[in-house]
Please model this.
Amino acid sequence: MSQFNTLARDGLWSNNPALVQMLGLCPLLAVTSSVVNALGLGLATLLVLVGSNVSVSLIRRHVANHLRLPAFVMIIAAFVTCADLLMQAYTFELHQILGIFIPLIVTNCAILGRADAFASKQPLLPSATDGLMMGLGFGGVLIVLGGLRELFGQGTLFANLDLLLGPVAERWQLTLFAKYDFLFLVLPPGAFFATGLLIALKNVIDARLEQRRRQQMTDKPRESRRVRVTGTIR
Amino acid sequence: MGWVLVATFPGILMLTWHFGWGVITNVVTAAGLAVGLEALMVRLRGRAPLVALRDNSALLSGVLLGISLPPGSAWWLILVGTVAAIVVAKHLFGGLGQNPFNPAMVGYALLLISFPVAMTQWLSPQGLFGPEALSLGDVLVRWAGLAEASSLDSMSGATPLDAFKHKPEAVMASEFWASDPLPAGSLAAWRSVALAWLAGGALLLYKRLITWHIPIAMLGAMLVLTTLLYAIDPSHYGSPLFHLLGGAALFGAFFIATDPVSAATSRKGKLYYGAAIGILVMLIRSAGAYPDAVAFAVLLMNFAVPFIDYYTQPRTYGHAAPQRGIRLDPIDDDQERLP
Model:
């Protein structure tokens, strides 16, 4: 079980594809202007990531080493086509908004990276877990970023969620600041800026945790000061 | 930096003379906020604020930002710009001497893309005491953000560069100027402001705070390009004088592009840097979406400064010039090394 805990911690936090590996930045920066865009792209990426990890893991013994990357790309492209068609069928308006960035999931290095670095060397179950956790980690950052940029760029939160979740979500829009507009955060430069702040925040949290861990280690009772020639009394 | 502040006085006075008290409120607010934020950031970084403030660099950044903004800007606009300049562009990158981008121009560019309406409402040049001039009280109402939107529109007009940019394609330049497209006295006001910046720049040169390389290269590049364009098609491109004395060309050349931290350092590098800024300004002015482009041109060239510095490092006395880039004749080079 501990392996799955490690996989979860890696994907969600300590080796997060967006905040630590800094992979897949193009969609991360381009579409996170609102929660609904971020959620849509996050779900599509999650689907592709799990699918490609599972498939790559299944065929890992049957692909010649020098042909592995083209094979992985073909697999990923197939899953992206599935996601693209699914979104076109069920969430057409969101598909129109996200536009080119759905097909561009093929070029998301986070997916190819996980396929090559993890799934091609691991059995089925860990690969699927890794895909799920990495996808959740990536999607989580997308949603946080989308929320931040939507809130401080347009003053709303969860606007237009019905495009993705159906008519249930029509009234979920929260307007926190009315008549508020800060274009910088809606435009791509603001995405760079917000991502930088998120990475800084993660590093601050990590540094605090590390400090606390060290504190606890030094809080242990001191070793005995009695003079002994062999060994120490603890 | 004290003398640089002194050198901005002629320009600030001339701007105030033509555009009213709004210039003073801008500069004072931006400078005060910049100093306050600098002190805060220095403190947060665990250093002594009073020592850091003594170099006046934050004060100068604030003044330059205040000058760039449309006269009579609201306090929140200035606050956002100053935070971007001092907190983000300066201290997040490591403080004075470490910032790759010109802080004042980062603040200005952020405001320009975020609040295009507020940032293009230049007051008409009514003068300080003209019949329609805003009184200090009116300006303070605007500063507090309490002025009604309709009153803002009636007081503001296009700058000469802005008006010329939006000239319809079918209208010849001579017809355009004959149709009196600008508020009265606008062109003359902008020219005298530009000349005041030239006077301030002359003081900077006289005090040897800047070298001539960047301003001359930038203005020279603009002069050459405008002359070429004007010679090719005088009906659609502005004259060299119009471009050099309109907008922020002289202000940018002497006060913005010469920022010692973010500009190129060697003499040859400064020439390339300045000329590239001049070319970019003219490119954006004549083919881009914005009427003026000093901020964008300077920021773009700030990106290129490490590259320029790498290739223009002067030869150390007694040493051979360093080999940079692709060697054109590697075979000959190898033969020379044979014993």
